[in-house]
């Protein structure tokens, strides 16, 4: 009789501890190491700002028609002014890289692994439109990302 009590108690103890093991889930990160460093750089040195909703809406980022709250960081070099915005409206970090080329603002939406998700052309006196020329969009995106890669600390 005592031999059957021990296995039952062991089974009962294991069944009580099993839910505790489920509470500890593996750490899942969506940030690449560079993405994480750029997020920290923007959070530490960037400025809070509001973006007009037209261009982000074409990228799938909406705030019910209101301006989009972002944290921005700007930099300049010989080829112009570069801005990166950290957006967290969909409860995940996303980057919007933008640069002015003449009277046109070129914006790229990217995840924190620096994968380009969408690109938009926004002329000064017109409505924004999605860039369908993939080669142009990817080339400009790579130029903007290279600018920020050079400024991310801890390379």
What labels would you give this structure?
155 residues; alpha+beta; seven-stranded antiparallel beta sheet; 4 helices; 7 strands; 36% helix; elongated
Rg, alpha carbons: 23 Å
Bulk shape: elongated
Biggest pleated-sheet summary: 7 strands, antiparallel
Uncertain runs with pLDDT below 50, 5 residues or more? none
Alpha-beta classification? alpha+beta
Q: Count the strands?
A: 7
Proportion of residues in β-strands:
25-35%
**How is the quaternary structure best described?**
single chain
How far do the termini sit from each other? Answer: 67 Å
Question: Can you describe this structure?
Answer:
With 155 residues, the protein is α+β, with helices and mostly antiparallel strands. 36% of the residues lie in helices and 31% in strands. It has helices at 2-23, 33-45, 54-58, 134-149, and strands spanning 47-51, 68-77, 80-87, 94-101, 104-110, 116-123, 129-130. It has a seven-stranded antiparallel β-sheet. The longest helix has 22 residues, at 2-23. The radius of gyration is 23 Å and the shape is elongated. It starts with a helix and ends in a 6-residue tail after the last helix. The model has no long low-confidence stretch (mean pLDDT 85).
């Amino acid at each position: 009789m005592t031999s059957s009590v021990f296995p039952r108690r062991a089974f009962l103890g294991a069944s009580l501890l099993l839910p505790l093991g489920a509470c500890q889930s593996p750490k899942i990160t969506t940030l690449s190491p560079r993405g994480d460093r750029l997020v920290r750089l923007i959070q530490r040195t960037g400025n809070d700002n509001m973006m007009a909703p037209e261009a982000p809406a074409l990228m799938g980022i909406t705030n019910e028609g209101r301006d989009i709250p972002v944290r921005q960081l700007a930099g300049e070099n010989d080829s112009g002014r570069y801005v990166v915005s950290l957006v967290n409206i969909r409860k995940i970090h996303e980057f919007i890289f933008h640069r002015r080329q003449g009277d046109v603002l070129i914006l790229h939406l990217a995840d924190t692994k620096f994968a380009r998700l969408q690109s938009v052309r926004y002329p000064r006196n017109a409505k924004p439109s999605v860039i369908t020329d993939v080669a142009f969009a990817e080339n400009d995106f790579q130029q903007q990302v290279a600018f920020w890669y050079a400024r991310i600390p801890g390379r």
